Amino acid sequence: MSSNRFLIPLTLSASNSQRTSTSSGSLDLIESSCSRAIPTSLISWTCAVKDHEGLQKDEQKNSDISGVAMGCSDGSIYVFRATPMVQEHVSSNASSPGLQNTLGNLGPFSPTQRSRMAQSTSRSSSPSSVRSSLAPFSVSSRSRIVSGITLEQAEAPKNYVDFEDEPEKLKDMLKGKGPKERTSLSEGVRSPSPSARIVRSPGPTPRTENIAGTGTPPPTSQSVTRAPSPTLSSSPALAMPTPMQSSISLAFHLLPPRLGESHSISCMEVVRDSQALLCLQDTGYLSVFSLRDGSCLSSCRVEDEEPLPPPEGIKAHDMSHHIWSWKRLQVTIYGEKVLVLVCATDPSAISGTPSNIGDHHSEEDASEITRIAIFELKEAAAADVSVSPLLEKLGEWCMDGPVCGPILSDPSLDQGAPGPMMFFHITPARHLVMRQLWLSAPKRLNPSLLESERSNNNSMTSLPLPNPFKALKMRSTERVAVAEDETPQGMIAVGDEVDLGEISFGDREISPIAGIRIVESRAMIWSDSAMILFDLDTKASRMSPLGSAVSITSIKDVRSCSPGSYIVTCRDRAEVYAVRKVDPNNDEVEDHSPGILQYAGLSTLREVPLPNHAISHILPSGCILVVRRDEKARRALEVIDLAELGSSRLSKASPGKLGNEFLWKAKRPSKDNDVFLTALLPLELDAIIAGYSDGFIRRSSLATLAAPPKNAAADLASDVSLNALVTSLFLVRNRRTSSQIIIGGGDDGSIACWDFGSLSLAARWILFTSPLQNVLEMPESCILKGCILCIACDGTIAIIAIDGCQFLYLIPGSIAPLVHVYVDSDNILLVYSHGWARLWDLRSQEFRRSLTWDKAAEIVAQGEGWVEMTMNHVQPSLTVGVTAGTPSQAFSATLLVDLTAMINQIMASVHTPREKQRQTAVTTQYRTVLSGLLTFGLSLDIDRLCEDGLGTQSSGTSAGFMSRDALVSFASSDPRTAWTISPEVSAARALGVIALLRALALFEEFADAANTVTTFYASSLEGLVGSGYRAPSPTYLANAWLNGAGELRASIHLLFDAGIAYLSDEDANRLVETWEQLLPCRQHENDKQSHIAAMALFLCGYLAVAKYSLLSTVTLADISKSIAYYLHDDTSVYRSLAIDLCSKGFTVWQQYVDAMEMLRALFLLATSSRKETISTQNAGLLARAAVLRIASSNSPLFMTTLAFDILHPQNLEHRKSVMQLVAFFIRKQPLVLYPNLPRLVEAVVKSLDPNATSDRDAVLDTATEILGHVVKTFPTVDFHTATQRLAVGTSEGAVIMYDLKTATRLYVLDAHKKRPVAISFSPDGRRLVTVSLEEGVVLVWKVGSSFSSFFNPGAPPRQGHGGSEPFKRLPFNVGDEAKMTTAGTLEYIRFEWPADRSVKLKIRESTLTFST
């Protein structure tokens, strides 16, 4: 979750009024996407799955499969799970685990059960109160395309230009001289002639399954998005789900942080007892996902991690200037550690193609090189979250040989402890070699040795290149910094290399080795046309073949499923082999037949044809799981049972006779004429540009896109189809005309320009061989101002002038991905991922030179005018709080809704006058978002209230889940399922619902309904969902609060407090015990400001406020100290948390810390005028609210601190801040000060002591302002300007007279038996009248100066008679007004003086006149 943003993925239906009639509005969007996806990796698991081979598997049946994950070429993953039985709710008090401690939570939390009867028993309850212009330069006619619509295809030059190509060739290409003919496109990529484009159907070309099964599917156009999900109408009662024929169901669609065709899923493994999925992408991104809800637990890029030197004994290789393709993933258990081995190869190195200028490949260099990295997958403990990620790199190095070669065997046990593992790999000479490998303590590499090693290496560096363009830092500078701190060495140690022998396939040596597996002491090694087995004797350091190699065509995978039995999957069949003992006549013999010479060899047991499929996976039970199309062309998961593994006879069978079982089938096949969303450009909630698979774009709104097909309004559509699937949309501005142009890309490599207002097609070219990925506007300082850079996925750049939509020229791409673009006035610098950059002259349109990252960084850092152009993979955030989801077609129908921005807009619209029609249109869009979050079908009454009171209804939108930039979309038609996935998903959805409802409640017409529905979603879900309900995770809410702001925080508190209220005492104690060790006061100084420590304070602090009696005094003291620590730390980003905790639980914390110091800190924050750099809010606002609350609940301590600080301030600044606080209270909460008003006034008066001249001058203005507010606000205080006298009435009936000239108390007038409600000086200052409603009397006092006061200072003036009686006593009777409240007396009682000796007392509407 991004700081200050709360993003919710909202997947739209593909419904549109203009789509083809064959497209079903109820087609499930995820299923449709799955049907069009191209699988690249497949894995399954059971409840008792093992993390690695080599352990005995339990007998497994097909029905035991509890889950399947299918990785795809676009980087996304589809997860299937055993169909859960959603239980009917039996009792309203049913309990269920609310928090489950599984891998990857934001921090530790314990399982909880919500108990409505949870009550504290050990202690009393908490004492706190809890609640452009033409083209910028001329270009030749060869490089210009006529503006306007054209059907002619623009030929692109060869996109991949090697650095060895002569600069002259590049110049000619840029000038339009004879570009090379484009090679024929691979199967599935459309390249029709112009005439063919005119007559063909608008739908995409149908795709075929990857029947080759090589693991790398045939190149096709990009995968496509999903169709709309079915909606569930409300019903009086929830019926149980109808049993399906499928034994598993599609649970969710998972998108890792990086997506696109270049980020395809290479390999996956299930870890942590089937609780987590480890996936490796081709670009080296290694991620861990929860199989419970798809949340991303950890993600890193192997090449971006801190580079480590190779283990001692392994030759250092130059890892730079390679384009690594990560292909293999292996998980191994080492004691209690989970080790992850990942391997990569450089395809350009295999082919011998130089990747940059200056590369000199010797014969040895031409061999395949493999990069290896080993990670440790850690447990998700709190300490790990705070100090390190779940994936920690332990070592990395490079070795010559195929990428399939490296493999780790299980460690042996040495006296109960794990011994060294065996690391095997295959050399370029086809020898299997072995090394011992073990974990060692991390070492530090001596800087001098490091420099010596570098100087001895002829290459630039032996370590991977870090990114030198972060903050324009040169890589050399980075290395110096690393060397100064000593470079850390890895934790992997290896032994000497042992050659086990040569791998020979006989007469089939021409085939490259494709794979190796080692199970126990046997190695299976195969190419694409042969397989051979070896017995390994690691002690004797040798291996012996089990017979000769077996010839098998089109091998895809080999696995051992039982001792001595092996399954080989091929493109169109599966074969079962077993190890058999034979005599010289090749007849099978018993293992121990005496006197007979025996040989070991492989014998074929069974051959089973496989159906046409996209990908297959061998199950531990000996069955084969395939992804294919059924007889109705629906995508399906099928298990093919290879029966009779133990048979000694060769047999063949058809799949239909083997008891095959379909685990899952899509509801309907994907059709070529289906029209679906493929790209989104959100501008406003009511202005979204949508691209479709039929090549049209349409302007729509969020409400229209979300509406069911029959209710969807007609959209403005473009006039001409692209005859290609629209893959991306961008908006650019013509600076000369201020008009806007929509730039879009097609899956055929086309670029199109549309007028924003009319959506008319202005120009179109086919320039690329891959889809458009990015559009960048050139800065004003550049010669190409008014132009845009259109960047394809392969890095090819087309330069187009916006004004007139004129194509200028192409800049070819590289074999490596483009990662950075820098421009100055005349040049463009293109930086690629393999460590090289290219410099192009924009004025002459010539290629200048190729240079390394070091030199490129120096040019940018030392030159003037260089501007980096940001390459966004996701559209930037908009003010409407909506962004396009991802560049992947699979999620092109997904919007990321920034809930924080949306709530702020709702609140602003409430207070901003606008036309009723406009306001209704805006609220309609907001309610559309809410409709996607609400789960209709749980309660008929709530459904009706939502429809009638809020104007929401069940729609085709569905809310997903986002964590660490990974998106998940769930597939379920049961409304209860949304609340049974995980506590985190429940928390995110409930928070979205409640936050939007609270914002809509600001509109009067929605207030009542919004409040009722808020209560329902905060506290009533468990009773309707049943025992599978997962209560919102407190940990998730704590993290959201720390990253949130404003109204979102209020909604989090509402949801958090509701959850804590139902938390049982046992679970509350468990939660505190888990987190109290992480409180800030218990951490080292460097960790006190960590995010995890702040989360601990949030959880323990607010739970202590609600359940004070359950916590020990030690825990309460630590919580109080942690609050004080954050409160007094001016640099803390978590000060807002401390302030809020002070506000809600001050009466608890005051028992364990200096309460006055805590109040003083709040005083300073409440009156500070400087901007605070806290996480989300200004501390002054929070502190003022906290002080108001504390003053109301603990007035004595508050007033004591206030008065003391006025009289005895730490400094003048402190005194001024306190007085500003008093003025604030007088204006906002006068009743808080009323009981202690005399003490406050006396403190203010004494601050004006003339003996402290400097102090008086500093506070004079503030004190005078305060006294003015006091006299104006409180009737019991009056001031006479001429005499500088101040009279203050007390609650005991006395009146105190002060002289402000001397800042002294003169005397006290005491005659009322009840509190006076008003006092007033006469105009001449010689009379003072006081009134008490409870007594029903007005007293008149003489207060003028007299001759006797000179002889008796401090005594009250004589009243004309003996004693202390007033000059006059005037009784009256006003009936029930005598019982007027204090608030009433402040508002309705006033004295008015028509003359010096006549006064009028006004009590509400009544007026009493007295003579004084």
UniProtKB/TrEMBL annotation:
<protein>
    <submittedName>
        <fullName>WD40 repeat-like protein</fullName>
    </submittedName>
</protein>
<feature type="compositionally biased region" description="Polar residues">
    <location>
        <begin position="89"/>
        <end position="104"/>
    </location>
</feature>
<dbReference type="InterPro" id="IPR036322">
    <property type="entry name" value="WD40_repeat_dom_sf"/>
</dbReference>
<feature type="region of interest" description="Disordered">
    <location>
        <begin position="89"/>
        <end position="137"/>
    </location>
</feature>
<feature type="compositionally biased region" description="Low complexity">
    <location>
        <begin position="112"/>
        <end position="137"/>
    </location>
</feature>
<feature type="compositionally biased region" description="Basic and acidic residues">
    <location>
        <begin position="168"/>
        <end position="184"/>
    </location>
</feature>
<feature type="compositionally biased region" description="Low complexity">
    <location>
        <begin position="227"/>
        <end position="238"/>
    </location>
</feature>
<dbReference type="GO" id="GO:0005737">
    <property type="term" value="C:cytoplasm"/>
</dbReference>
<dbReference type="InterPro" id="IPR049916">
    <property type="entry name" value="WDR72-like"/>
</dbReference>
<dbReference type="InterPro" id="IPR001680">
    <property type="entry name" value="WD40_rpt"/>
</dbReference>
<feature type="region of interest" description="Disordered">
    <location>
        <begin position="160"/>
        <end position="238"/>
    </location>
</feature>
<dbReference type="InterPro" id="IPR015943">
    <property type="entry name" value="WD40/YVTN_repeat-like_dom_sf"/>
</dbReference>
